[in-house]
Specification:
Elements: H1 15-19, E1 31-35, E2 48-55, E3 58-63, H2 73-79, H3 93-96, E4 100-102, E5 106-116, E6 125-127, E7 132-135, H4 138-145, E8 153-162, H5 166-172, E9 176-180, H6 183-187, H7 194-201
Parallel strand pairs: 4-8
Antiparallel strand pairs: 1-2, 1-9, 2-3, 3-8, 5-7, 5-8, 6-7
Length: 216
Amino acid sequence: MGPEGKKPRNVRSEAADVSDGLTDNGYLDGQLLIAMPVMGDPRFERSVIYVCAHSSEGAMGIIVNRPAGSIDFPELLVQLDIIKEADQIKLPENAESMKVLKGGPVETGRGFVLHSSDFFIKDATLRIDDGICLTATVDILKAIARGAGPKHAILALGYAGWAPGQLETEIQDNGWLHCDADPDLIFGGDVEEKYQRALRKIGIDPGMLSNEAGHA
């Protein structure tokens, strides 16, 4: 899914540098996108997106700060016939507390699990960087239900996708900031606070963001 041999570029903290957009070879797989106030699409307003794949063929990412309403992970396991309803009380703690998120507007009926790299299924798991993987098969849900899954994980319903060149254009138009990811911003439980925390991570005061493009 991602370009082989390409490393995601490291973004400096200064707002001017961040808002300048991509470098010539700056694919962003393994980085976070942070929506700017100018973002006109309500589906992505105040969103933080982990980029799972980015190449000349387009990009794919998971929104990590938008809860999926009243959907509960144990109930979802019952709906998928992974466990019986009576077995919900027997789930391991990390399964009971696992977050279910709205991952994006594409394929909203499909589940994508972002997780720590201590879990891997051959031919099913995409290793995005040293610490984060993506698995989209039911096998990882079964493993989590029996306590054999990854230490850290979130389940996202749907994903965000960009056509070739589209993400680069949106960044150049000041639609997104981007920065290095960290596990706490991806897997942390304070979902509603992730947007503010992501901005602070790159040294930006949310109140100082402008709707104008930051190009020189």
